[in-house]
Amino acid sequence: MKLISWNVNGIRAVHNKGLFAPFVAEYKPDVLCLQETKAERGQAALDLPEYEEYWHSAKRKGYSGTAIFVKKDIVVHSVELGLPQDLCEEFGLSDDGYGDPNEEGRVIAVELDDFYVITSYTPNAKPDLSRLKLRHKQWDPVFLAYMKRLEEEKPVIFCGDLNVAHGPDDLANPKANEGEHGYTAEEREGIDAIIKAGFIDTFRLFTKGNGHYTWWSHFARSRERNVGWRIDYFFASRGLTSRIKAAKILPDVLGSDHCPVLLELK
User: How much is the pLDDT for 186?
Assistant: First the structure.
């Protein structure tokens, strides 16, 4: 089974460039997870009849949003949009002045036969760190609690744009970016907690060291020079480790400031 996650930075833009359908045709993912769709279902004239589509769009038009496309020969037992309300209340996740992040279309969970697949578009801490407290104290704890709750039923695979580079090998200029949004101690602590809870950073099972990135700034030809950040991930329950065949970054796929990441299971 092949799973792919991609922050498309606007599904309509990628589709209108003529890049989305050829990408799907070439890689043929069984499950395709998208973040930052910036659209509602039907706004992009996608022709993917072999997939069942599940969309979670933000209440605010043209903002955020996620989607999961699953091949129709795969049984989907349930679909949940957003984070559970009881966990949001427990950790105080609510409108922080920017809006309620649970109304921004950021999470979808689909239940398959053997495991759950969840996609997440994690809130950005903002350059002035004005959303860091929400990210650190509310979002990350709620999301991890949700993953652990689902894992009580079945193993979990979760993916997406988590908006943080975990360690110095995950961005080209770690010293220069220390304490900046996307590389604060608080954001990195969220990934530490995920790993401590038993989830595996699947890419690091196969590839060590730096130079492997999933997002590049539009400035100063950053992508051409590979001055980037690894902020898009596939995490999996430890019990799935023996089934993980490959985990890769696909830097040659264009259309967004992010590139896709791939997970292949036996």
Answer: 98
d(CA 119, CA 125) in angstroms, rounded, equals 19
pLDDT score, position 47:
83
> Helix, strand or coil for residue 81?
strand
Number of domains observed in the structure of the chain: 1
Q: What is the pLDDT of residues 41-91, one digit of tens each?
A: 888 778 899 999 999 999 999 899 999 999 999 999 999 999 999 999 999
161 counts as catalytic: yes
CA distance 249 to 211: 11
**Residue 9: which domain range?**
2-265
- For the question of whether the overall pTM of this predicted structure is more than 0.85, the answer is yes
Residue 220, Cβ density class (10 Å: 0-12 exposed, 13-18 middle, ≥19 buried): exposed
**Under a CB-based contact definition with an 8 Å cutoff, are residues 52 and 72 in contact?**
yes
Q: What is the pLDDT of residues 187-227, one digit of tens each?
A: 999 999 999 999 999 999 999 999 999 999 999 999 999 99
Say which residues have a Cβ less than 8 Å from residue 261's Cβ, sequence separation at least 6.
4, 5, 6, 159, 203, 214, 232, 233, 234, 247, 248, 249, 250
Kindly report the CATH number assigned to the domain that includes residue 136: 3.60.10.10
- Residue tagged active-site, from 30, 140, 161, 232: 161
Which of 121, 146, 183, 213 is catalytic? The answer is 121
Residues 6+ apart with CB under 8 A from 225: none
Element (H, E) at 192: helix 185-196
What element of type H or E holds 203?
helix 203-206
